[in-house]
Amino acid sequence: MTILSTTRTYVLVSAPLPNHIADLLPNPREDVRPHISIVSPAPVTDTDSIREAFDAGEFSTGGPIAIELDGIGDFRTDTPPTPVIFLQVAAGADRLAALATAIDARFGLRRRFPFHPHVTLTYYKPDEELDRVAEAHKGFRAVCELTAMTVSFGASPDTMPPVITWGPGTTYAL
C-alpha cells in the first residue's frame, strides 16, 4: 500500500512590530518575531503573481499605519475554539482590515476565520499556560506606527493545522 503525501505552498503577509515593542513580547515561535498577520497562512498556487503585485506596489497604503495595542483577548470561545492568547489592536484596525480585504480580493484568498488584527502572544498550549501569559501581559499597552509588511512563502505537508517551514520574507513599505 502506497500513501501519497502532498505539500502545499502558503503565503503569510505580516506587519512586523517595531523592535522597541517586539522586544517586550514573547515570540510564540522561535523563528517568528511579534507581528500582526494581515494574511494568516493561506494556501496559494501562484506565488509569481503575488510577488509581482507586491513588487508593483499594488498594496502600498500611502504611509505608516498608526496602531494602539491595548487589551488581552483569546479565541478559545470562538467556533471552532482555538487556543490563542493575543494583544488586541485597539486603534488602526480599520486600515489593516482594508489592506487585508484588498489582498484577499486580488488573489481570491479564502480565510478560515474572519480577519481580526491582533498580536499573538502564545498558542496551542495548555489552558494554564495560556492563562499565565494572558495575566503577565494584562496591562500591556503600546502605541506605534507600522511602516512595512513582509510577504513570506512556506511549505507544509497537507496537515491540519499546517506545520509550515517559512522561507525568507520580502519587505515592502506600507
UniProtKB/TrEMBL annotation:
UniProt-listed InterPro entries: Cyclic_Pdiesterase
Top-rank taxon, per record: Bacteria
Gene3D superfamilies in UniProt: Cyclic phosphodiesterase
Protein name: 2'-5' RNA ligase
